[in-house]
Amino acid sequence: MTSALLDTFGRVATDLRVSLTDRCNLRCTYCMPAEGLARLPKPELLTDDEVLRLIEVAVTLLGITEVRFTGGEPLVRRGVVDIIRRTAQLAPRPTISATTNGIGLARTAGALRDAGLDRVNVSLDTLSETVFAELTRRDRLADVPAGLAAASAVGLAPVKVNTVLMRGVNDHEASDILDYCLDHGFELRFIEHMPLDAQHQWSRETMVTAEEILERLSRRHTLSPELASIRGSAPAETFPVDGGPARVGVIASVTRPFCGSCDRTRLTADGRVRNCLFAQGETDLRGLLRAGASDEAIAQSWVGAMWAKQPGHGVNDVGYLQPDRPMSAIGG
Asked: How do residues 214-226 score in pLDDT, each as one tens digit?
């Protein structure tokens, strides 16, 4: 190993999030405008071989033990199955997961599992066809439960569900979504709406806080705050539901930030390292790679990028500035 991805505050990144594309087949209101966003030109995107080379550098030289594929929507990338297969062949083999909107999961779950995908996170913000169409600007709700069922059937366990609640839109569904996940054996994680939308229209008034989420769930279920998980580097704080064993999680990035234990590093679809989801700066690895740099030189550049990581995301600071890149171009 060349070095660990250490920062000046003693945190070590072992979890790599790889954005495979900035494209998405939904147009979620909290992420992008109705017309979508300008796509990255194809020559700027990493090729499959370039993605794999950077992952191999991270795993074999920098101590990465988990690789999660994100987007945009990762399943719209044609080479995703082969990328996962080749990632699973690395030694040491990392844990491999993906975060998806679930639209293409029903037809790909088996191939993804056979390629080496270990588990999957699926976004599901509503159980209502009307609200889904309003939130995503697409009439595709039926595809998501089908994808969840397929993932469960092929053993992509645990199947996790990610839900973002929007005030006045779907926040009344919190307990219904929890019941759905309990009935089907899925692990639910509510995520506070973060200031990463392309429109830069995020506001605290529309964000449903972790405290509110827990209060809403407690109207129907018994949660046990005294038995909340010690999350360590995990983003979710989880709570037993009705005495367990089922648990529900809340990822409170804004109101209960967990920056002090963050273990993530991010690679964008155009080959740039971000040391924080909310970072203002990036480090270009694609340029190094295409200029003929050695694996060791690329690794050292990556080390330098992580060394510069700030103590926290700064969302709650008076002078906070939202990153130019939206979530769809960064990867979750």
From this structure: 999 999 999 987 7
Can you list the positions of beta strands (E) in 5-58? 5-6, 12-13, 15-19
Dihedral sign for Cα atoms in the order 26, 121, 316, 329: negative
Cβ neighbours for 248, distance < 8 A, ≥ 6 positions apart: 178, 181, 188, 189, 190, 217, 223, 238, 239, 241
CATH class of 5-330: alpha beta
Angle at Cα 223 formed by Cα 220 and Cα 225, nearest 5°? Answer: 150
Q: Return the percent helix, strand and coil in the chain, to nearest 5.
A: 35, 15, 50
Q: Phi then psi for 54, rounded to 5 degrees?
A: -70, -40
Which token pair is 117?
A: 């995908």
Give the start-to-end residue ranges of the domains of the chain. Answer: 5-330
pTM for this predicted structure: 0.91
Which residues are CB-contacts of 138 (< 8 A; sequence separation ≥ 6)?
25, 26, 27, 132
Greater confidence (256 vs 316) lies with 256
Among the listed ranges 37-46, 128-137, 197-206, 218-227, which one has the minimum average pLDDT value? 197-206
